[in-house]
Write a structure and sequence with these properties.
Blueprint (H helix, E strand, L loop, with lengths): L3 E2 L2 H4 L5 H9 L2 E6 L4 E4 L27 H7 L3 E8 L2 E12 L2 E10 L3 H12 L14 H4 L12 H14 L5 E4 L6 H12 L7 E5 L5 H9 E2 L11 E2 L1 H4 L4 E5 L6 H13 L1 E2 L8 E2 L3 E6 L3 H6 L5 H7 L2 E4 L10 H11 L8 H9 L5 H15 L7 H18 L19 H15 L4 H8 L3 H10 L3
Parallel strand pairs: 1-5, 7-14, 7-15, 8-11, 11-14
Antiparallel strand pairs: 2-3, 2-6, 4-5, 5-6, 9-10, 12-13
Helix pairs in contact: 6-7, 13-15, 14-16, 16-17, 17-18, 18-19
């Protein structure tokens, strides 16, 4: 739906079928004239905006100064798939030109905030587009339908408080922020929290890009956009993520996996604060702030020639190192209670069971703990969770994988709790050794079972001489 045909009289008539449609279908909708002045705000806006009627007849820039309304009104090109935030509400925004007899007469803007089914329907339609183009956000629905702030990062330990204080300081600036942490430590939550803290009351786009989820041959187009005819299948101009982000924030997730060629182009855009669409010659200003995240050792990649040193220094103005769960065991009871409450469940852990949870090294971090709690909740019938049950659940996963994939595995002796390793490092070494043994040293399978990346497992194997 690149354009919407509409009579001018309908656009300027209030209280009619159009207004009722906008009120009933969308979480938030706006009608603008060709000069981008607000003609109508849907009734649902009252849930989002304080006193929405104050904006009627005024430029939309007073409400949203970042989205490309003027571009849509002047070019007639629709813009879809903007991940946006307005007064603390995250949403998925589309802008469409309104046309009468081939002449642009206004713009329709609508946002879905929490209507997940509607968002997924949009993504499905765009995935199945007859031209075969990819959905603009690569199915990152989670970043649209839910938002995070710093209160969503659970923990009362001193290390967590220190880390969150550093994030708040980072959010008070417009410098690039580099989040470094293992898989499952909460990088996405902190990135979203920094964005929310930077824009506490006003709208600002938040665009997340997973550098591993987008095919390498499409990544440049996703970042910078492309012109019509730039390559086979480029049937119309497309705005890239950097352009969509406006003066908001861009999250470059898994930045350590970006190829060297694209690293050079990214560095050039960051240094010059401008870029060109693929196949274009127009220089477009880059105004957004950068947040990057990785679970890799970027200085080590620089030494190995796999990551540009100048890009690393450009991204790491403010570095935030996320605390692995094994370094904050005092937060585990709080996390367990939170996961139970999120499923309206109840489990009784013995003192020994909680002690084992706090002593376990958690190579998959909070994500692995969450999955264990959910598994116990699903498979328990109200009985008390003992330390032996916890250790069985943590150790039988490798055995089950070996059995399911017809791999021979060593017999498992009954756990002897009183002789279990007492240090975190011993527990971690034991868990990794068991995973490697039962997966016949298949690194991919063992990493999947442990809830960590292959690169992390390789480092652990080298560390423990396994």
């Amino acid at each position: 739906m690149p354009q919407i045909s509409m009579e001018r009289s309908i656009l300027y008539t209030r209280g009619g079928a159009l207004d009722k449609l906008l009120d009933s279908v969308f979480d938030m909708a706006m009608l603008l004239d060709v000069h981008c002045n607000i003609l109508y705000l849907s009734a649902s806006n009252q849930k989002v905006l304080p006193n929405p009627q104050q904006f009627i007849g005024k430029p939309v820039s007073l409400l949203d100064k970042y989205s490309p309304f003027q571009q849509v009104a002047s070019t007639g090109q629709s813009v879809e798939g903007l991940a946006v935030e307005m007064y603390g509400h995250r949403g998925f925004s589309n802008l469409y030109p309104l046309v009468e007899d081939g002449q642009i007469i206004g713009v329709l803007s609508y946002i879905y905030f929490q209507n997940r089914s509607a968002i997924e329907q949009i993504l499905t339609q765009r995935t199945n587009h007859p031209e075969g183009r990819q959905p603009d956000d690569y199915r990152q629905v989670s970043l649209v339908t839910r938002s995070y702030d710093f209160s969503d990062f659970l923990g009362d330990s001193p290390l967590v408080k220190q880390m969150l204080d550093r994030c708040r300081q980072a959010a008070a600036s417009d410098y690039p922020v580099l989040l470094i942490g293992e898989t499952g430590t909460g990088k996405e939550i902190l990135a979203s929290g920094i964005h929310a803290a930077r824009h506490p009351k006003c709208f600002a786009p938040y665009v997340a890009i997973n550098c591993t989820a987008i095919p390498e041959n499409l990544m440049e187009s996703e970042l910078f956009g492309h012109e019509k005819g730039a390559f086979t299948g480029a049937h119309q101009r497309k705005l890239g993520k950097f352009e969509q982000a406006g003066e908001g924030d861009v999250l470059l997730d898994e930045i350590g996996d970006m190829n060297l060629s694209l690293q050079s182009k990214l560095l050039r855009a960051l240094e010059s604060r401008e870029f060109e669409r693929v196949g274009g010659q127009e220089l477009i200003p880059f105004r957004a702030n950068i947040i990057a995240a990785t679970n890799k050792n970027l200085p080590a990649l620089v030494e190995a020639g796999q990551f540009r040193a100048d890009l690393y220094y450009r991204l790491s103005v403010i570095e935030v190192f996320l605390v692995p769960l094994r370094k904050r065991p005092e937060d585990i009871p709080l996390l367990v209670d939170h996961f139970l409450q999120s499923r309206s469940g109840s489990l009784r852990f013995t003192h020994q069971a909680m002690e084992f949870l706090q002593r376990y090294p958690w190579p998959g971090n909070v994500r692995q703990l969450r999955n264990l709690v959910y598994r116990l909740l699903a498979l328990s019938s109200g009985e008390q969770i003992t330390g032996e049950r916890v250790m069985q659940e943590l150790s039988t996963g490798q055995e089950s994988y070996s059995w399911a994939l017809s791999q021979p595995s060593a017999p498992q002796p009954a756990p002897e709790m009183e002789h279990s390793p007492r240090t975190l490092e011993q527990l971690e070494r034991q868990a990794i050794a068991q995973a490697l043994e039962h997966c016949q040293r298949n690194i991919s399978l063992a990493a999947r079972q442990l809830g960590i990346s292959r690169a992390t497992l390789y480092k652990k194997v080298e560390k423990f001489h396994l």
